[in-house]
Amino acid sequence: MKLLVVGAGEMGRWAARTLRPVSERVALADTNPQTAMDAAEDVVDGRVVPLDTDESFDCVVLAVPIPVVADAVATYADNAAGGALVDVSGVMAEPLSAMADHAAGEYASFHPLFAPPRGPGRIAYVPGQSGRIVERVRERFATVGNEVFETTATEHDDAMAKVQTGAHTAVLAYALAAGDVDERFHTPVSEPLAEIARTVTEGEPRVYADIREAFDGDDAVAEAARAVAAADRNEFAALFERAGDAVDAESRVDAGDADDAGDDAGNDERSDGPASRADE
């Protein structure tokens, strides 16, 4: 399989490394030539191609930031005209819609729900127009230990509003409200929250901002926090019970499946990708 990975950041490198065993020499493109060269060395015997390459590939993987993935689809669709166009951007409705408009062959969207250093983990998958190449990519992701599960773009993006935008908003709000607390005073509840906040704030603000703009979810968290803060004793008890019911419902859906995928925003720590063409 002749493979091009557009975007040589962390997720692009992950895709290149993972797919290398089922590919010929991997080609990489990035707005930063040095980043592309470093990634080419990282995936072993890779090569760098210009962002405006007219070369044809069996598979083009778009590992670009969310705001420019639709433009990247339009830009690189011709490069995958005889094969498959795949994105790992983290949003699904927009790129799949763009692929339906521009892709001449197979196309699909994958979202690794983990930062590459914390993989393997779960990968959401929507087969827009599946075929031999898309299936090879899906099988390879599964072969290295990932749980690849099929979903829809709507179901995925609705979930991301909660588990990404909503979760990030709640974590950042807690960190801002708690401030600097002597670690000796942490409780079994506050200590993991503080650790999660550290994990989140070690990331790149732009990545989290991209997620926040792509998925609504922060207003729901703010509204819930206001409701809790304004509740009297009886109202608080009712909200407490509702929260417990929500957690129990989630546990029933995902019973026994420990969430060891790590923080999700790491999967969006991609290179700035094809900014000169698609302003990634």
Automatic annotation (TrEMBL):
Q: Which residue stretches belong to region Disordered?
A: 247-280
Q: Where is the composition biased (Basic and acidic residues)?
A: 267-280
Keywords attached to this entry: Oxidoreductase
Concerning PANTHER family, the annotation shows: PREPHENATE DEHYDROGENASE, PREPHENATE DEHYDROGENASE [NADP(+)]
Single GO MF annotation: prephenate dehydrogenase (NAD+) activity
Carries keyword Lipid metabolism?
Answer: no
In what ranges is there compositional bias, type Acidic residues?
Answer: 256-266
What residue stretches are annotated with the Prephenate/arogenate dehydrogenase domain? Answer: 1-269
PROSITE patterns with a match to the protein in the record? PDH_ADH
Is Oxidoreductase included in the keywords of this UniProt record?
A: yes
Q: Per its record, how is this protein called by name?
A: Prephenate dehydrogenase/arogenate dehydrogenase family protein
Lineage start: Archaea, Methanobacteriati, Methanobacteriota, Stenosarchaea group, Halobacteria
